[in-house]
């Protein structure tokens, strides 16, 4: 079965969306690894979890562990304070705004291509997810059509996983192997 002219023209747009998200996520990965923002983000999450744990300690048993948690919290706060330099703050700022750019791009694409299937796949290959892939037009469109919003969700999730698991480490390794970035990062 052939694709309509409008659907066939939007296949490059779907690939462009995924490629754009991958580029943004690779930049975020490099910022995280090279400038150390990933480690600082984990420290912030650990500190918040420890604060919540200390606040929630009500039983006698959990009170016994409270002093150890408070020491660990102080150590992590001290480490975070020592790592927060102006350049790291700028890197965190830039990293957060890359996420905002990703969201704005997704909103623009949704607004622009609303009501038009990006592409279609065989109905049998997406059988249990057919209506979800066409959301919110699932009842109106033919099974196998892929709408903008589900494609954006899949592209955003896949690009993060792809960049953090494969492309980011591979490009960082390649840059170090070529001598472009010797000894930078972890």
Could you walk me through the main structural features you see in this protein, from its secondary elements to its overall organization?
There is one protein chain. By secondary structure, the chain is an all-alpha fold. 73% of the residues lie in helices and 2% in strands. It has helices spanning 5-35, 37-56, 60-64, 66-83, 86-113, 130-133, 148-177; strands spanning 119-120, 145-146. Strands 1-2 form a two-stranded antiparallel sheet. Helix 5 packs antiparallel against helix 7.
Compile the SSE list and pairings.
Layout: H1 5-35, H2 37-56, H3 60-64, H4 66-83, H5 86-113, E1 119-120, H6 130-133, E2 145-146, H7 148-177
Antiparallel strand pairs: 1-2
Helix pairs in contact: 1-5, 1-7, 2-4, 5-7
